[in-house]
Design a protein that fits this description.
Layout lengths: L1 H7 L3 H21 L15 H25 L2
């Protein structure tokens, strides 16, 4: 989020991202997941799948930001 906030210069991207993530997590992903004893470990906003996906996205944007901002420095 910080990378895109600095790149775009607007806070609205983060607002729209947060709202859409709640819609997808609660209204779509929870409903299409097969319910069993281990489901609570994987689904919803506290599940492992969201955490792993968020970490992958964070690593991608961290690397992208380091490359861009080190190239700009004199």
């Amino acid at each position: 989020m910080a990378y895109l906030r600095l790149k775009i210069g607007s806070l609205w991207f983060a607002v729209i991202y947060q709202a859409s993530s709640y819609i997808f997590i609660h209204k779509l992903f929870t409903l299409i997941t097969v319910q069993n004893a281990d489901s609570s470990w994987f689904i919803d906003e506290f599940g492992a799948v969201i955490a792993v996906f968020a970490c992958c996205v964070a690593v991608y944007f961290r690397r992208k930001g380091v490359v861009e901002y080190t190239a700009v420095k004199p």
